[in-house]
Amino acid sequence: MGLIRIAAVSAHFGRDLDHDLDRIAGLIESARAQGVHLLVLPDAALGGYLADLREPDPESLPPAIELDGPRLNRVAALAAEMVVCLGVREADGDRRYNTAVCLSGDGVLGTHRKVHQPAGESVAYTAGDRFAAFDTPVGRIGMLVDYDKTFPESARTLALDGAEILACLSAWPTSITNRAPRMADDRQSRLFDLYDCARAAENQVVLASSNQTGALGGMRFLGQAKVVGPGGDILARTWSKAGMAVAELDVAAEIARARRVLAHLSERRPGAYA
């Protein structure tokens, strides 16, 4: 496709679905004004995330969203020519999933159900069981949700499936057990950036990382949305405040440049890893 403009968002989303949809509409409008082709919104952008990760209240969980329902249909209409990724609590029969959805005006392009669950999340979500990339108008994309990016195998599986861009959607909080007085000093703040850069560099792909900001219940979210190049370099970021990190690059050319001498995927030795 040549040059594409990628935007990763840090913003707050809560239980009020109408308010969330209005915020999403505003972010899409702002992204369109900046010529964005791919917009990555946070996890739980419709309905918010859990208010307590250790002991979630079953009576106050995020609302369940149907993938073919009116709310995601509205987001698709707003997206039009743009490719937009966002997170929802997906309703599938009696089961609920923490799901990343990628869509455009043509409808849903791909989905990913979060596989790795931290303590307490099983109260609200069923775990997914696979990682798969998919084709979009801006290139082949793979998606990760929150804790998935902690595990190198997640991103590697997507890269081996041809993903050129990893969309990492998060509602990533500060440390629950040992919160630092300053967010910049928090252990999770450091790890969030480390995982983003490592997953991009080790797979030599472009990574767009979104995250929630603000607070919900006892959870305080980090922000730190960013776009990372295939060498692990941060091309644009928002720090801890709400905002939009925008970077323009030729994804295929940048990946080819990163893999010109050292091609991590083709130079693996799987037989030695058992």
Automatic annotation (TrEMBL):
For this UniProt record, give its keywords in alphabetical order, as a comma-separated list. Hydrolase
Alphabetical list of PROSITE patterns matching this protein: CN_HYDROLASE (PS50263)
User: Where is the CN hydrolase domain positioned along the sequence?
Assistant: 4-251
Return the protein name.
Carbon-nitrogen hydrolase family protein
Q: Domain of life here?
A: Bacteria
Output the CDD domains linked to this UniProt entry.
nitrilase
GO molecular function terms noted in the UniProt entry: hydrolase activity
Q: Which organism is it from?
A: Cryptosporangium japonicum
